[in-house]
TrEMBL record:
InterPro entries: Rossmann-like_a/b/a_fold, Universal_stress_UspA, UspA
The UspA domain, residue ranges: 1-136, 159-288
Pfam assignment, any one: Usp
Name of the protein this chain belongs to: Universal stress protein
Family: Belongs to the universal stress protein A family.
């Protein structure tokens, strides 16, 4: 089954930037583009908003206007536009299920750190079973120039990060870009060592060589599958979020994995993904894993 690149739009500048990014990505990958606009029928005591059909028609006109410029820029791209009568978060989460990636807009950087992604974006990222890409208003196509890297965080075993690496390599292959694979590590507390782990570390020659070997092993199948994609292996001591952000200054995309957690106050997406989403200067792809 061919999965489309799907963009969620609402008429905002952020969603227009997301749509533009999605259009370029769909064209590069030879995939169709699906545009989704979620809406729900509103009744207001003080204003005549019209009946359901009238409101739907206004939403349809806005959605059509939003994609008009994009179809002019990409005349060969297959584009479908769907209006979904539902709240934004569940509608977009459902749309992600059939997408190669769901692309959403995000507000720009500012003083209110922690609120830039927005509640809808966080709910979708936490609930989506497919990659979600966040694009800020003002994102420029020039930032995707060949030579700028796709930075991806690798953690745990090769199986833990397989989907994250797959997305990074597929994106880099479509763009003619280099993959910079980043593995961060910290000194574990003494009580975390077991006889088995000490034996592995001793065989690897120490902590940092052990981490380098783990990264090399995780990358091996993807190097073989994408032999034309240049790869830089980056192992550095430090917190994963800080190391990723430090290496992403000239990236065209940062790819991170996430394991969703739900708490009494709502969905959480993990500290690394949260930090990168709020501070990276380029689009960020969040890829779910079990």
């Amino acid at each position: 089954m061919t999965r489309p690149i799907t963009a969620g739009v609402d008429g905002s500048e952020e969603s227009r930037a997301a749509l533009a990014w999605a259009g370029r990505e769909a064209e590069r990958r030879g995939l169709p583009l699906r545009v989704v606009h979620a809406w729900h029928f509103e009744v207001h005591d003080a204003f005549d908003l019209g009946d359901r059909d009238a409101q739907r028609q206004r939403v349809r006109e806005m959605a059509d206007e939003t994609v008009r410029d994009l179809t002019a820029r990409h005349p060969g791209l297959a584009v479908t536009t769907d209006l979904v009568e539902d709240e934004a978060a569940p509608a977009l989460t459902a749309a992600a299920a059939d997408a190669e990636a769901l692309v959403l807009g995000s507000r720009g950087q500012g003083a209110l750190v922690g609120f830039l992604v927005g509640s809808v974006g966080q709910q979708v990222i936490a609930g989506a079973r497919r990659p979600v890409v966040l694009v800020r208003a003002g994102d420029e196509p020039a930032a995707e120039a060949t030579g700028r890297e796709v930075v991806v965080g690798q953690h745990g075993t090769a199986e833990d990060s397989a989907e994250t690496l797959r997305f990074a390599f597929e994106t880099a292959a479509a763009r003619g870009a280099t993959v910079r694979a980043v593995r961060a590590w910290t000194l574990p507390p003494v009580f975390a060592y077991s006889p088995g782990s000490l034996k592995l570390l001793d065989e690897a020659g120490g902590l940092e060589p052990y981490e380098r070997k783990a990264l090399t092993e995780a990358l091996r199948p993807w190097r073989e599958r994408f032999p034309d994609v240049p790869v830089v292996e980056h192992v550095e001591m430090g917190s994963a979020g800080q190391v990723l952000l430090a290496t992403a200054g000239h990236a065209q995309l940062v790819v991170v994995g996430r394991r969703a957690r739900r708490t009494a106050v709502g969905a959480r997406i993990g500290s690394v993904a949260h930090g990168v989403l709020h501070h990276a200067g380029c689009p960020v792809a969040v890829v779910p894993h079990e």
